[in-house]
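User: Structure tokens for both sequences below?

Assistant:
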Amino acid sequence: MTASHAASDASGADLALSSVTKRFGSFTAVDDLDLLVGRGQFFALLGPSGCGKTTTLRMVAGLEEPTAGRIDLAGKDITRLKPYKRPVNTVFQNYALFPHLNIFENVAFGLRRRGVKDVKGQVQDMLDLVELSSYGGRRPGQLSGGQQQRVALARALINRPQVLLLDEPLGALDLKLRRQMQIELKRIQTEVGITFIHVTHDQEEAMTMADTIAVMNEGVIEQMGGPTELYDNPATTFVSNFLGQSNLVAGEVLGQSGHELVVAVEGSKLGVPMDRARSTSGAVWVGVRPEKVFLAASGTETEDNDNVLRGAVVTDVSFIGVSTQYLVRMPWSQELTVFEQNTGARESFRPGDAVDLHWMAAHTFVLDAAQDAHAGDETYDADLAPAGAGT
């Protein structure tokens, strides 16, 4: 037994991937991946198209065979097992319901295939679970997209898989229904206690539902942890930009003061908690989330214990209901983003206003300056970026 497999057993992991690689010709889709998924977790594989997340899921399902490495499920090596011999079920984006069967028979399909005679009680329990108790006699075409998704979920869960795999299951739904189904999926997973592994490119979806998120990029995991940990303390520029938005400004480490790293940014000294600093010397990126920053009219508020960047000018104001989004141009020409809640408690600003940026040192993070400041930012276009945006 390898160290990874021993760790799997000790941690109560349902799923363990050890040095798993998948190549398609000269292209490496998944690169030497190690992964442990704890029993009973709602686990998300999150990343952009082409990052390897769906290929990873397909290898667990047995629909793709690893080029190298091993996959264990509940302590059993399933790397070469046929898909139908694996204790997993998959729910796909297109639902794949049988249009000629009613909802009851769609859900009962797996049980009947296994030769189970008395299916009525189990099917009704599953329909109750997904809140479709009275829909058993209908056909899939008579149901909404969200209801069809619930039927697909019930059909998969009735087989009592060790692990349920969800491949972009909400991608075909509209925004409002998708958010409702996020809550429902989490409720169902909590009730049945089965390990869910959910593949998605939607950051909000992953953070809403998952206990643990693995952020994938170019076939490897950039960072793994709980939603709050990944959002508040990203380990790489890719994670900081892909999971929400970040302001990243170039800085130079000056040294340490107590439990803080001191970083110089364009003539200002900023404090960063040592446990939020991924690099502690030389050139760095200093990061802060837009909603952690507040604006004050230039020179009107003292620093206290805040980090402050002075001399900015508001360039754009967007009212978006619960908050206002400001773009501000710094003296070195870089534009930063600030989100302020529309509580009425603070002054509002207009384009052309001179402002200072304030935020708590505890909300600051530091990343390695060798990384691309725009990695993971799917909205960034270097050809359209304003002057100073690449610094």
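Moving on to the next sequence.
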Amino acid sequence: MKVDTPVKVRRPIFDSMVPLVRPVLPPFEVLEQDIRRIVGTGMVTKGSFLRDFEAAAARHLNVKHAVAVSSCTTGLMLAYQALGLEGDVVVPSFTFMATVSALVWAGLRPVFADVDPRTANLDPVAAERAITPRTSAIVGVHIFGNPADAEELQAVANRHQLKLVFDAAHGFGSLYQGAPVGPQGDVQVYSLSPTKLLIAGEGGIVATNDDELAEKIRIGREYGNAGNYDSAFAGMNARMPQFNAVMGMRSLDILEQAAERRNAVVDLYQWRLRDLPGIDFQEVRNGNRNSYKDFSITIDAEEAGITRDALADALADDNIDTRKYYEPPVHRHTAYREFADHAELPNTEMLANRSLSLPAWSSMDDEIVLGICESVRNVWEAA
């Protein structure tokens, strides 16, 4: 008589799901007094808290103007419009869709250029190759919070008399040559959504040293109305409420703590995973600091013996959330394929096929990091 041997099922490393992100917000007691003042005065928009937040953000970024808007996306739309861009704009495809969607909303044609496979940022050489006679600007992205090659991109822009814009959605907490990213290029646009280090709930910051550009952004966020109810141009409602400004101000107070903790988390990840064949990490240039809005690794299936997708499935079995940023890259999105007929983007395609973002947040305990690393190592040993 045959007796089946019971199959031993290993318990997941974590009893409940470890999320990819967990927002770290200022304590309510820190916000309470300011919120009571807002409610008491009824000034829920365009008040003193918004002005104070803009001033504090400008000081932190070392720029003359920090204009608060309703989102990074509306900030990009207004910036592209205010710069008077026309025709083609060189942009990476390995980025969040809003980098490109805002261009198309502004009536511009994205021309996709490849990224550096090590930094995952726009490659200045590829960007210069993508310039056409109709090009008016280059858009760089601090991908995952890794500062873009601002000096090299500026040199390309100068040679061709182009505007230089940075999608700095991941940029708060990043350092370029020891200082916060901000003064580089013509304008930088930041996100303050809950997945970021500096959180306002929702919202964005447009940072620039250009007085005229800043004024156009301010008017643009008010429907194009400079105050006389005569639209100077077609704007939009892109105002940031005072509640968001209060949260943003208090979140700015703990930004450096958040950035330092995320870098410590990544250091621990790399220490435990760097010896595994086929796994690699985003390169950060000397003198820079990554905010690590996301901690993304790459998996070479031939060396590792396992694909990125199989690793993600295995981690899910251990209750570990992951994301495949950015798959598909923007040039393969349904809405933007028509702009991609020229594109040869081997590094973008490689990163899209290999990148996997692991959980990382600003209050993450070492024990959670070590548990995730244990799960990854178990998968490697099995492979």
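User: Anything stand out in the second?

Assistant: The first helix runs from residue 28 to 41.
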